[in-house]
Design brief:
This protein is an alpha/beta fold and 372 residues long. The chain has helices spanning 21-28, 32-39, 47-60, 66-73, 93-108, 123-133, 149-157, 180-193, 209-224, 245-252, 266-279, 313-329, 360-368, and strands at 78-84, 112-118, 138-142, 161-164, 174-177, 199-203, 232-236, 260-263, 286-291, 306-310, 336-338, 342-344. The chain has 3 domains: 11-73, lambda repressor-like DNA-binding domains (434 Repressor (Amino-terminal Domain), Orthogonal Bundle); 78-177, Rossmann fold (3-Layer(aba) Sandwich); 180-310 and 343-354, 3-Layer(aba) Sandwich (Rossmann fold), CATH 3.40.50. 41% of the residues lie in helices and 16% in strands.
């Protein structure tokens, strides 16, 4: 396979034209086949040779020809992210955060994201088309429902995919999620430990599993404290969460027994704060909320007022594309990733109970993540 190498930098003198694999072969004194296999990740090329080829390719400004790569590897370096056609979804700060993480991660991994939308009744035809024409290497799924049809289709098709969230089959595919159940169990237990016995839970859309798991965490914490489900009034927003926060908080305040409000998003908590200031400014209320670290919102004015459980949606987006590309490069079962969460407690709230683990029975239930 060896060839007599040219003088260093010879290929770089090719002028304005693009550097090719042939140029790299001449520069390194290696065969075109060896160069190609090294750049495409084949294991039969030694690590030192691969590193040497990579260094020279970078120095000379080599950029792979995607069309040629597709013929050799049968991969497109494209992944699909199919969205249901919803005007409100595309301006949702939660979606924007995830998208920012996905796009930045894809750029670093030399992948492109094919973002498309379709009406719910025709959504599956898009997946079918991409699978049959092999125009993408894998798929990102968000907002899963229980026994999600997209998951079922891609499991049957045998294509790489990753889910932002989990349905009732998390062991069957790759996913990225937070501990929705555990986080909201702990927030509820925290409120109970601080003397609150009647509160409202302003949740997201329970058509989706993240909201179902959060609701189940709240109810299980109440049950473990010997309180009935009626101790919490659950109010739901349609997806995406946001503009319902004000109205749902007004409804929560109709019950004079409510001393605390638990929110599924800081977007709703901030709107809810406006309703509290306007409708019950003297009423002592504890506020606890999920904080997805939305760059859209400045929470500085609420420092010390909200108890939050924080986890970055942008970090989740980066983890999604990393897991999907891993599957594309390493055929085999998908892996699950839990994005860490951290609690920040409002002034006047005793955080001691947060150090306690979930009861053993609840830890087992959280792992199964079946609907209540």
């Amino acid at each position: 396979m060896g060839r007599k190498p040219t003088k260093p930098g010879t290929a770089a003198k090719a002028g304005a034209r693009s550097v090719t694999i042939k140029d790299l072969a001449q520069e390194l004194g290696l065969s075109i086949t060896t160069i190609s296999r090294a750049l495409n990740g084949y294991p039969d090329v030694g690590e030192k040779t691969r590193e040497r080829i990579s260094e020279v390719a970078q120095r000379l400004g080599y950029r792979p020809n995607r069309n040629a790569q597709r013929l050799v590897t049968r991969r497109t370096h494209n992944v699909a992210w199919v969205q249901q056609d919803n005007d409100r979804k595309f301006v949702d700060p939660h979606f924007v955060e995830v998208m920012a993480g996905v796009l930045r991660g894809a750029r670093a991994l030399n992948y492109d994201v094919v973002l498309t939308s379709e009406t719910p009744e025709h959504e599956m035809s898009v997946y079918d088309r991409y699978v049959n024409d092999n125009s993408v290497d894998g798929f990102i799924i968000d907002l899963p429902r229980e026994t999600d049809r997209r998951v079922s289709f891609l499991l049957e098709a045998g294509r790489p995919f990753v889910v932002h969230g989990r349905d009732g089959r998390p062991g069957a595919y790759g996913w990225v999620d937070i501990d929705n159940y555990g986080n909201f169990y702990k927030l509820t237990r925290l409120l109970l430990a601080n003397g609150h016995r009647q509160f409202a839970f302003i949740n997201g859309d329970e058509a989706f599993t993240y909201a179902l798991h959060r609701r189940r965490g709240v109810l299980d914490a109440l049950a473990d404290a010997g309180l009935p489900p009626e101790a919490v009034r659950v109010l739901n927003s349609l997806h995406p969460m946001g503009d319902a926060g004000y109205t749902l908080t007004q409804q929560a305040l109709e019950d004079p027994r409510v001393t605390a409000i638990l929110y599924s998003s800081t977007l709703m908590a901030v709107e809810g704060h406006a309703a509290i200031v306007r409708g019950a400014p003297e009423r002592p209320l504890a506020v606890a909320t999920m904080d997805d670290e939305l760059h859209y919102i400045d929470l500085t004015p609420f420092a010390g007022q909200f108890t939050t459980v924080r986890s970055s949606l942008r970090e989740a987006g980066a983890a999604l594309i990393t897991e999907l590309v891993r599957q594309c490069n390493e055929p085999g079962p998908g892996k699950g990733v839990i994005v860490p969460s951290r609690f920040e407690v409002a002034e006047g709230i005793d955080p001691a109970v947060l150090a306690e683990p979930l009861p053993a029975l609840r830890r087992k239930g959280a792992r199964t993540l079946q609907p209540a």
